[in-house]
């Protein structure tokens, strides 16, 4: 392949990836074409993209995009996966597919410039996602107010009402 063709392919991969800094690398080489096509179709429904590319061209494209954390992982057959709601959702989806499809292997990934091993991606897939974390934070922020309302409406609320009525009688 000529240098010009390699540069065209690398620039195409870089355009597809865009500004994404969070990627996973998988090895789909042991998976048949029909299963791979089904995987791609199901991932596309969840706005996750996957591209199979030669490692040297992937390195070239990623280095142009400022991602160098995957250089050590890009060895052997590799496909890049990115997209979805966040990196946790992406890792959960890929981990589920790796369990369902024999031969699909997660090689690693990158998050904020940090290289992730396959074990790190597995741990990441078990952590709460973005929406779950937002709901937990909202619950924590609202819990003091909820406790106060509960105290006022509970048995203590009746006492406060009696104290208020008693104080009003004393004022009269």
Termini Cα gap: 98 Å
Query: Main β-sheet: number of strands, strand sense, barrel status?
Result: 5 strands, antiparallel
Gyration radius, to the nearest Å?
26 Å
Please state how the strands of the largest beta sheet are arranged side by side.
Answer: 2-3-1-4-5
Strand content: 15-25%
Q: Averaged pLDDT, please? A: 83
The geometry reads as elongated
Q: Structural class per helix/strand content?
A: alpha+beta
- Uncertain stretches: none
Give me the count of strands: 5
Helicity range of the residues? 55-70%
The number of helical elements comes to: 7
N-to-C SSE string, H for helix and E for strand: HEHEHEHEEHHH
Task: Provide an overview of this structure.
The protein has 172 residues and is of the alpha+beta class. It is built from seven helices and five strands; from the N terminus they run αβαβαβαββααα. The chain has helices at residues 3-17, 33-45, 55-64, 87-100, 118-125, 130-153, 155-171; strands spanning 23-27, 48-52, 79-83, 105-111, 114-117. The chain has a five-stranded antiparallel β-sheet. A hairpin with a 2-residue loop joins strand 4 (105-111) and strand 5. It is elongated. The termini are far apart. The model has no long low-confidence stretch (mean pLDDT 83).
């Amino acid at each position: 392949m000529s240098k010009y063709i390699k540069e065209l392919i690398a620039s195409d991969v870089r355009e597809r990836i865009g500004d994404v800094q969070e990627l996973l690398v998988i090895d789909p080489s042991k998976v048949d074409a029909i299963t791979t096509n089904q995987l791609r179709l199901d991932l596309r429904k969840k706005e996750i993209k996957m591209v199979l590319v030669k490692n040297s061209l992937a390195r070239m494209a990623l280095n142009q995009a400022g991602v160098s954390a995957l250089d050590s992982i890009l060895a052997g057959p590799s496909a890049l996966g990115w997209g979805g709601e966040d990196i946790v959702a992406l890792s959960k989806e890929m981990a589920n597919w790796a369990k369902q499809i024999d031969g699909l292997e997660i090689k690693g990934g990158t998050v904020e410039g940090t290289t992730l091993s396959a074990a790190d991606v597995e741990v990441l897939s078990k952590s709460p996602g973005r929406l779950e974390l937002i709901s937990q934070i909202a619950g924590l922020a609202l819990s003091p107010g909820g406790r106060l309302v509960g105290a006022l409406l509970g048995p203590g609320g009746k006492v406060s009402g009696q104290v208020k009525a008693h104080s009003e009688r004393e004022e009269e």
